[in-house]
Amino acid sequence: MRYYPVFLDFDDADVLVVGGGEIAARKLRLILRTGARVLVVAPEVCDEVRAMAAQGQLAWQPRRFADDDIDRQRYIVAATADAAVNRHVALLARGQNIPVNVVDDPDACTAITPAIVDRDPVLVAIGTEGTAPVIARRLRERIEALLSPGLGAVARFIRDHRERVKTNVPEAQRRRVWEQFLDGAGAAAVEAGDVSEAIDALQAASRQAEAPTGHVALVGAGPGAPDLLTLRAVRLMQDADVVLHDRLVPAPVMELVRRDAERINVGKQQGRHPVPQERINQLLIEHARAGKRVVRLKGGDPFIFGRGGEEITDLAAAGVSFEVVPGVTAANACSAYAGIPLTHRDHAQSVIFVTGHRKADGDLTLPWETLARPAQTVVIYMGLGSLGESMQALIAAGCPKHRPVAVVQDGGLPGQVVVTGQVQTIASQVEDAGLRSPALVLLGDVVRLRDKLAWFGKQVRA
Ligand SMILES: C[S@@+](CC[C@H](N)C(=O)[O-])C[C@H]1O[C@@H](n2cnc3c(N)ncnc32)[C@H](O)[C@@H]1O
């Protein structure tokens, strides 16, 4: 980074503009919106600058630039049609450490003006260090569309009421008051011009902050790719006070969590032991009772082999407010990114999700006859460790040995690996390929479609 971003206070500051043509006028339009005392030095000026001078918005001295014009200036714009004059002005300004902007001559500048999105007093400045104005323009268009035209009015309302909130609301709760105000009826009322309704909304938010009620959001983080999160998941992650997350939630997703939020990895403690489920449930309740906004971030979807049901059963029993945000479950991610539709008019009229995780006694009890039936897709979560055993059990239950099977490791992630084979061969193929968790097993005729539909990642075939 060569240019340091900074906003200069022009209130009551002396600003010099050398030159008075169309380009100078363009610069002046913005400068005159500040409280700067502007002097334009130029033998001739365009009609717009002449009008500005006539209206008393600036002082115009109709003469050539003199070296001592730069004395006491806070900022200088060199905008004459003569590059040599502009360079001379810039050299003198540099000598006195006064920021100078020279039109169409980036090398002579010590200050450049960014592209802006203006919701005064909210100002978004976009700079590319002069490398690619087209990017700045494109970003400006996008940000313009994102920001409500009334944002400036909301900012002014907050400025006018900050002191009162500071006096009445303890520091720890202030951020939440303003966030609630922004997300709720308050900001909407300001934008609609209804100040008394906005004040009511602010008072309600302040009262609520005095007795904060905690809340837990059980959020599905999808298969691990940040752009497969829902917008709601991201909003809750950015609002959270505490985030309890699983081992399956990778760093790029965690980067979207609010920087100041407390993060608790319940997937593993020191020594790699996961926090017991009862303790997780207890932690959720404790943090919510302390008035915090808690996000319980779980890989995939919270209600698919995620123990989400157990967690909210305890929350409901404890009277803690909660919500559940669905996520892209591994079956959907693996299916989409491996090119294996879960259903297909010709091959599978139903889908069954099962877990290959053994019970505490080591038993793997699944309805094998049901799973062996034709015209369906079977998805086995956590099925890698018991793959050989489950394939044998399927064959014993009548499943054809040649029925196609795929195992997808890291589905939907850049390093996705897919091994395809048949019920009788897949276990040894997966072993040879050295697949590891997380991996999902897909069984059924739909797997054959991958030959035509694969579009993503790496493939290992029998
Ligand atoms: C405890 S379950 C959690 C499932 C999760 N709630 C979901 O909806 O995807 C973990 C299992 O999900 C599967 N899984 C999760 N993410 C995966 C991914 N990116 N690729 C393949 N399988 C995945 C694996 O079978 C893994 O062992």
Largest sheet: 6 strands, mixed
Cα gyration radius (Å): 32 Å
Task: Count all strands and give the number.
Answer: 18
| Name given to the CATH architecture of the largest domain | 2-Layer Sandwich
Give the termini separation. 51 Å
- Helical percentage: 25-40%
Structure characteristics:
18 strands; 6-stranded mixed beta sheet; binds S-adenosylmethionine; Rossmann fold; 17 helices; alpha/beta; Cobalt-precorrin-4 Transmethylase, domain 1
Structure, described:
The strands form 4 sheets. A 6-stranded mixed beta sheet has the order 13-14-17-15-16-18, sandwiched between helices. Strand 1, helix 1 and strand 2 form a beta-alpha-beta unit. The protein is elongated. With 462 residues, it is an alpha/beta fold. It has helices at residues 22-31, 47-54, 83-95, 133-146, 151-168, 171-183, 185-191, 195-210, 231-239, 251-254, 277-289, 308-317, 330-338, 368-371, 387-396, 426-433, 450-453, and strands at residues 14-18, 37-41, 59-61, 75-78, 100-102, 115-119, 122-126, 215-220, 242-245, 262-265, 293-298, 321-325, 350-355, 376-381, 404-409, 417-422, 439-443, 458-461. It has 17 helices and 18 strands. Helices cover 37% and strands 19% of the residues. Helix 6 (171-183) packs across helix 7, helix 6 (171-183) packs across helix 8 (195-210) and helix 7 (185-191) packs antiparallel against helix 8 (195-210). It folds into 4 domains: 1-113, NAD(P)-binding Rossmann-like Domain (Rossmann fold), CATH 3.40.50.720; 151-210; 215-328, 3-Layer(aba) Sandwich (Cobalt-precorrin-4 Transmethylase, domain 1); 331-461, Tetrapyrrole methylase, C-terminal domain (Methyltransferase, Cobalt-precorrin-4 Transmethylase, Domain 2), CATH 3.30.950.10. The two termini are 51 Å apart. The model has no long low-confidence stretch (mean pLDDT 93). Bound molecules: S-adenosylmethionine. The site of S-adenosylmethionine (SAM) has 25 residues, from helix 13 and strand 17.
